[in-house]
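Why do we care about 3D structure at all? Because function follows from shape, and shape follows, mostly, from sequence. That is the central idea of this module. The next example makes it concrete: a single protein chain, its amino acid sequence, and then its structure expressed as tokens.
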Amino acid sequence: MPRHGEFTMTCRRRGRCHITASRVQSARTMGLSVVIPVGTAHERPGEAGFAHLSEHLMHQYARDQWGERVEDQIVRVGGISNAQTYPFHTEYSFVIPAPAEAEIPDWIDRAIARVAPPRITSVDIECEGRIIRQEVARRMSTSPTAGFPWIDALGVLSTDFGLRHNGFSDLADIEAATPEAIERFLHRTYSPAPVAVGVAGPWSPDLMLDLLGCEESEPETAATDAYTAAFGDLIDGPHHRQSSVATQIPMYSSIRYVPDAHGAALESAQAHSMIAVEWANAVSPGTHWQAGLFGATMGPDHRVLIGSRPHGADIAVPQWTDTPSDRRSELFVHAQQRALDNIDKELSSTATHAAMLARDSAFGIPTWARRCAVAQTTPEEIDQYLGHARACAAGTLSSAAPTGVGRS
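And the structure:
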């Protein structure tokens, strides 16, 4: 696991891209991740699923532009690639065995090519739409919770169409998409957005960026505004809704929007939510607590606090004083260590390390400062977070029963 003396990171600018490189000691692979702060929450009426479809089209186009060589070479050298769409950002990543130093710039350029403006035809849309339908069907059929609660969680907080639909539970807009409609979506969202690149490998960060010919000056944070304005004035809930997806077992969630403490640094706000959910899970058997739809380090949605369980009784945020005083210190240390372990696990692999660097750059969060903030968090701060969270109004989300299955 990384230690203070081992974590080295350098940030520079190259045109539209903010590139962050970091060394992973003794690594035998190179991880690259490209993040654009655009996702499903940026869709408008009639665009449900356009962010996911655009991800597919851009990923495919990058392969076409390189004559299939990017994917072919990744596979040939024993690497893997992936692309994912989230509410507030999209990631394009791959990891390969560590190349020769002279080849580093070429691989970084191939990663950046993932976000080149794609050529779009009706055939492309039909082909990628078919793949998306298969992906969705597989996800819904193989998971007992079928995407619950993340598919509809933001809809509990906002009635805005862009936050309520994401093209997973309803594919109608994808099926009706035209090249012109997708081009308008990309022009409005992707084209003006900054691009954040994360690179992790066994080399000096300065060496990697020197080879790439990046500007020497330190860039400003790539998109702090994307973090602070992610929810904007869209929060008009919370509401009480039924999920748009059916689950194999009944599920219920309590969903709260918990604003960052006034004046708190972004890394501190994430640190507090990370530790608080570990505390809550330790003292709330039968309920699963999470900060963010996919984790507290995935972007501004760490401010969404979700408690889920398979029955619908009131799901209240556990309080510091609910736990006997003689156990609080032990449980706090346990929760803090679990949060640190989760960060260290991501930083120990070049693939997840690069993805974290790119996400953090896209939202203006200093990666190592967040780990330091977790280590420096006090019990009093978690007590305050839990009290603040409990005071926030909660909406609810209940899952739909599978077809033909009654609800008791």
